Amino acid sequence: MRTWLAITFTIFIALPGIAATFYLDPVNGSLNNPGTLAAPWPSLEEVILANIVETQEYSPLPYDPVNSKLIPKNVGAPVQAGDTLILLSGLHGAVEIDRHVNTGYITIIAGADQTPILEFLHLRSSAYWRIEGVQISSEPYGFYTDDHLVFIESHGWRGPADHVEIRNCLIRSGEDAWNWSQQEWLDRVTNGINVNGDHVLIEDNLVTNIYMGISLVGDSLVARNNQVINFAGDGMRALGAHQLIEGNLIKNCFDIDDNHDDGIQSFNLGTYDVSDIVIRGNTILNYDDPDQPFRGPLQGIGCFDGPFTDWVIENNVISVDHWHGISLYGAYNCRIINNTVLDPTPGLTPGPSWIRVQDNKDGTPSEGCVVKNNIANTFVVDGEQSHNLTFPGTAEYSAQFMDPLMYDFHLLAGSSAIDQGDASVAPPVDRDGVTRPQGNGVDIGAYEFQILNVLTPSSPRTWSISPNPWIDQTMILCEACTDSNVSIRITNAAGQIIHFPISRVPGGFLVQRAHFPAGPYPFKMHTDDKQIYTGVLILTD
Q: What is the chain's Cα-based Rg?
């Protein structure tokens, strides 16, 4: 091994400052290779254990923020800051990156059309790592781990972890969880992503068939555009300061034990400073199929052990079978603005869903909070509130929203929420990124109703889907539509709503694959003049 490292070093030292790319193939690779596509290295686990990453570590230990300094580690190793490791298909092992504090990002990414699978990923006391496009699950290894699948760990002895990015990864305990028995759920599920560090980005991941989805413990953390689907604990936890939780889909809670499950939960027991947290533009659904096995009540955004200071909760869509739609117990200078919070079965207990701000559990009253421009079944608020709408039961839903049975809470023309909000507090855009206001005033709730040029039913509209079948992305366009005010609902063959990453474009939508399997996906598009266009997207491998 030492001879190989020396030889490799003489190859790479001739090109200082130039980022390099290496290939890793767990089937055909070898540590005796140079790491090229034609002659790749082996699995990621083997490469990390071979100490071929030039990096740094804290010394002396135990770590002390004053006395411990970063010292070089693996000097002259071929992989250096700025480099990229491209993973080819296969099992890349149990990856533990311990005390690797890089001077710049090293990227680990799946190769094009490749399926690399890690047993788990543990970054302890490490920094400046970027992980993209890999699968993380122990099931392909023949067992179900009882540890976190992804763990970013600041360690009291070894030092802190920070500046890590986890992007576009598939993280799951196993497949086919809808067919698991309760005991199989208890035996198989583990936690998805557990962050215990600072300056971490968790973005565009699918975390599925899991217990706890994404736990954020630390400061300056971002969880954006992730999907936590089929979970048995909490979808997300926010335990730190200066966090952003934005654009995530959290759905399908499985009730397999006595945990009181939350879409997003936080608490302050003296361990964490839970201040300056923004929860924006998320969708939390108790379930998307009433026949889901082990369906149980889910609390939406549950924060019961304050104090919670300087929070912003805006543009969220929450549909849960519980009283706690959004609940803050012990809130100070918090803003709850332009959310839509509705119980699918408000006549059943527990429920209907409320937006609630009240005293801390120790009796300390909440102060300085503002609750405006929201839709909910009911409100219980200690603080300033106005411009809210209360819909006690489902009788009001059908007159207000596009398709409430399918959790589409876009406003219908004539909705009592249109133009009735307080513009002074409203976010500049809505849940879809539509600019507020679109009419004479801002609307109440998470969605802004868009004003359109009215087209008569006889107006020609030519729809196109290109390409279809598709692999990575497709466009659905209406050639006669002069703006983007159309809504879309995509399902799978069983009729369950599928939340592909969708972007509005003039006259239609750009649909991207993410991690969804091949197959037919029926969709329905609504236009402003009540025209409906239906079709089927064919997704292939």
A: 25
Amino acid at 106: I
- Alpha-carbon distance of 467 to 539, in angstroms, equals 10
Fold observed for domain 463-539: Immunoglobulin-like (2.60.40)
Asked whether residue 263 carries a pLDDT value surpassing 90, the answer given is: yes
Strands 473-478 and 508-512: antiparallel
Q: Are 376 and 361 in contact (CB under 8 A)?
A: no
Provide DSSP, 38-96. Answer: SS-B--HHHHHHTT-B-EEEEESSS--TTT-EEEEESTT-SB-TT-EEEEPSEEEEEEE
CA–CA gap between residue 497 and residue 487 (Å, rounded): 14
Give the model confidence (pLDDT) of 524-536 as tens digits: 776 655 566 677 8
**b vs e for 363-389, b when ≥16 Cβ sit within 10 Å of the residue's Cβ?**
eeebeebbbbbbbbbbbebbbebebbb
Whether the Cβ atoms of residue 126 and residue 97 lie closer than 8 Å to each other = yes
What's the average model confidence in pLDDT over 481-488?
A: 60
DSSP conformation letters of 493-520 = TTS-B----EEEETTEEEEE-TTPPSEE
**Phi, psi of 136, deg, nearest 5:** -130, 110
Where are any strands of DSSP class E within 256-374? 262-266, 277-280, 283-285, 299-303, 308-309, 312-314, 317-319, 324-329, 331-332, 335-337, 340-341, 354-358, 370-372
- CA distances to 79, 123, 211, 438, 505 from 433, rounded to whole Å, are 40, 34, 31, 12, 12
What are the residue ranges spanned by the domains of the chain? Answer: 1-172, 463-539
Query: Are 134 and 118 a contacting pair, CB within 8 Å?
Result: yes
| 3-state SS class at 399 | helix
- Contacts of 147 by beta carbon, 8 Å cutoff, 6+ apart: 120, 190
pLDDT (0 to 100) of residue 265: 98
* Residue 297 in tokens: 């009540």
Q: What type of residue is 74? A: N
Nearest-angstrom CA–CA distance, 344 and 286: 9
Q: Are strands 214-217 and 193-196 parallel, antiparallel or unpaired?
A: parallel
